[in-house]
Amino acid sequence: MTDTDAGFDFQVVTPNRVVLKERVTSLMVPGARGSVGFWAEHAPMLVALAPGVVKFRPAGGPGAAFRLLATGGGFFEFSPDGRATLLADTAELPDEIDVERARAAYQRARRRLARPSPKVDISRAELALERALARLRTAGKS
Amino acid sequence: MAQAVRDIRRRIKAVRSTQQITRAMQMVAAARLRKAQGRALSARAYSEKLDELLERLTADEAHIGHSLLDRRPVRRATVIAVTADRGLAGSYNTNLFRRVEACLAALVRDITRDGVEILVVGRKGRDYLRRRGWSVTREEIGVPDDDLGQLAREFTVRIIDTFSRGATDEVLVVYSRFVSPLVQRPEVLRLLPVASPEPASETGDEEATAPRRTGAGERPVEQSELEYVYEPSPRTVYSLLLPKFVTNQLFHTLLEARASEYAARMTAMKAATDNADDLIEKLTLEMHHARQTSITREIMELVGGAEALEKR
Fold first, then answer.
1. Residue A110 sits in which domain range?
2. pLDDT tens track for B172-207
């Protein structure tokens, strides 16, 4: 573990924009089958993501605090040259999150799941719930 | 005499107020175009990464036998026509209609009219196709620029569903490619079956299937010593990634279509504004002329009258 403190480049892109470009020392992404953590010099990897919270620690001393990012799913790549890219369907930093909307979405999804009817697409409602939860957690309002 | 001057003056006023409208439309189109270009630019990073990942997976042969790459004899086809909601955009819509018509004619040579399903974006396209006796399965009218991503996702779900069920064998999108603010070119892009980005880029049908490359060019796939770890399997990742690729391609055609529309409208309205200027100039000249003529005539009459009096 020599160079891990220097960190690595982390980029978050969505179909609409580049959300974040930052040097980080470590991060954790919500993989479809559980969280996966990365430090510098990790082996190349391509992970399919579930909706959830991405945690990352910006480079700049051991004191740097974790930061959060909500994603609605997508893919995460750690490339052979050591760069990390989050290819997200949606991604928002805490101050970009519309808490009211996320709350409403959360309630709506809960209601749908509580009373399943033939009209309700269960997996869609579950995904909506996950996305809303991710946003609320990221905004610190869960 | 004074009547003629008044008429011309009235016409100048009318032209001027029309000009105000065309100038406003020109400026609105210019502003929208700038925004649309900005959108396309900020979408680039995502597209490039997506293509790169697909290329790598294709190199790892995760694509073999994937159902969305399945080329079947075309018996039924889906055409997505991306047109504008409004006119006053020069030849933008007309050019598109011609391309749509050509595309449909080519399809109908081999399959029946009933085998063609049409999805249309834009009021103008819907009206045109209806007039020409085509039945439109789905129409999207008045979609705001900000909702194009959502629309692309919805359409993708739909076409992937129909393609997977075998209800369609080919999905084409007709749209206007944004070449430059002065040049927009109607084009046809095949969405399904997917022509996955090939690692060996010398495929023959590059022209037909991958017209919108944002200038990234063919970068050689890195021959890395390190093996990728896929989580879950390469095949699963690939089959999750592929629909995103289709969505993204469609999203880009929608973005380009909008940029083209605004550019075409801007150019058309600029021409109209300039024409109005010319017209006003011509009419002003005519008005001066008429005024001068009437003055001259009055003087002549006065002089004539005076002479007549003198002679007496």
1. 97-139
2. 999 999 988 899 999 999 998 987 665 544 444 444
Instruction: Name which of B58, B60, B229, B237 to mutate to probe chain A: the one with the most chain A Cβ atoms within 10 A of its Cβ.
Output: B229
Cβ-defined contacts of B123-126 (< 8 Å, 24+) = B123/B83, B123/B84, B123/B85, B123/B86, B124/B83, B124/B84, B124/B85, B124/B86, B124/B87, B124/B93, B125/B81, B125/B82, B125/B83, B125/B84, B125/B93, B125/B96, B125/B97, B125/B100, B126/B83
Q: Hey, is the C-beta of A126 within 8 angstroms of any chain B C-beta?
A: no
The total domain count for chain A is 2
- What is the CATH number assigned to the segment(s) B27-197+227-267? 3.40.1380.10
For residues A52 and A82, state if they share a domain: yes
A55 and A88 both lie in a single domain: yes
User: Measured between beta carbons, which residues in chain A are less than 8 angstroms from residue B236?
Assistant: 48
Distance from CA of A21 to the nearest CA of B (A): 12
In this structure, the answer to whether residues A74 and A102 fall within a common structural domain is no
pTM: 0.81
Tens digits of per-residue pLDDT, A98-109? 888 998 999 988
